[in-house]
Amino acid sequence: MPGVQAYLTDAKRLGLKIGLASSSDCDWVTGHLEERGIIAYFDCIRGWDDVSITKPDPALYVSALAHLNVSADQAIALEDSARGVTAAKSAGMYCVAVPTDMTRSMSFEHADLVINSLADLTLEDLILKFQT
Question: What's the CATH code of the domain at 69?
């Protein structure tokens, strides 16, 4: 997806922890990240095989937050599905919806922010939107 590499690079430059919470299994997720050469950016990867129930249940996010030792109010989830937004919000996180062609028709009204692409907003500008 456009903007992903810049977000990962900027997050590391800013000293942020990066977690991934996916309803796919960990082997598939890590293989996908390895193929793209970006797995080293992630401090935590959680998949359906790490929890007893997946999105829209918040368990994946709760597990990732615990592993990262980050409180939900200090985290921002980037989600491409309505079920993912529900999971992130139920975990107490800020959530930005970034719909894909497959999910664009879903309702994202429960997201804190909806953007068309990560390339439309820098990570630093995104963070500023959620600082109080």
Answer: 3.40.50.1000
3 state SS of 29 = helix
Tens digits of residue pLDDT in 32-67 = 999 999 999 999 999 999 999 999 999 999 999 999
Residue 131 belongs to a domain? no
0.90 exceeded by pTM: yes
46: phi then psi, degrees, rounded to nearest 5: -125, 135
DSSP 9: H
Give the integer Cα–Cα distance in Å for 91 and 94. Answer: 9
The number of folded domains in the chain is 1
For residue 45, what is the DSSP state? E
- 132 in any annotated domain: no
The answer to whether 48 touches 64, Cβ cutoff 8 Å, is: no
Q: Which tokens is 100 given?
A: 């894909």
